Amino acid sequence: MTNSLIDTFGRIHDNLRISITDRCNVRCFYCMPEEGVTYMPHAEILTFEEIERFVRVAVALGVTKVRVTGGEPLVRKGLPVLIRMLSAIPGIRDLALTTNGVLLAKHAEALYEAGLRRLNVHLDTLDRERFLRITRRDELDKVLEGLEVARQLGFGPIKINAVAVKNLVEPDIVPLAHFGREHGMEIRYIEFMPLDAQGLWSRGNVLTAGEIIETLSREVAPLIEIPDRDARAPATEYRYADGLGTVGFIASVSRPFCLNCNRIRLTSDGKLRYCLFAIEETDVKGVLRSLAPDEEIAAILRGTVHKKWLGHEINSSQFVAPPRPMYAIGG
Fold it and tell me: 100: which residues sit within 8 A by CB, 6+ positions away?
């Protein structure tokens, strides 16, 4: 196989995000409802062996970056086993995990020993009351403990993902920035996207990257955009003018980066998606379980990338939210 994951707009796809579960141990209001969530039966979820096989085919087609997500991936039993399997695949240059951090302190050492080094931890606030309001769980102390354990073990880089919801997290912007600077972690502010399960999103609820940059430049330190960064990375990165760290902004709403997108996504139940906001998806699980040859899996990968649209059109009247909420797609 050769590198052939190129869409009709010339974008090369080398970044695969894999959701390994739709289950989660918190209930962030912009992602999951408090009650009434119906999870997929375990039999419908891809096994570690199926995931490994799919990744090996994807790597043969040029994928070099793999991120494991959920739901909350740390609720999936045996995760270090999967990490060890993936880290052993030749050709993967970057293996990372996205987690809410609640179980991180418990599993960090096993993950590190399995070969994981890069972490993205979801944390919107350092305020216990607001954390409870956002996640509907009183688990802030566990997340902070997990971050410290990971830092001491040598994980790096550790990035903190903070969702920016207007009229809610403004008091958290500066404290998070200081936390990142003091602990050597990059805060990545993510604009609130229309992926919630309850239809709460509106354009007016988005605290934009521009507004956050203005706040940080005024109250922390002036920001300087980092030159020569990877244009295909979702975050626009800045460094503080005083030299104390960096900060990133994922501005999917105000500054879409679709023209440089290099990502494809595999859901926990084995559906391949060319965009987080895609309406259509292609079944891979059936092919994997029918013991079809690798060439058939490769054909699905090529075909999915070939069908990829120009962009998600969040800012147009033509936008249609995907039928799956974020937790069922994969972060």
Answer: 24, 25, 26, 72, 121, 122, 123, 135, 143
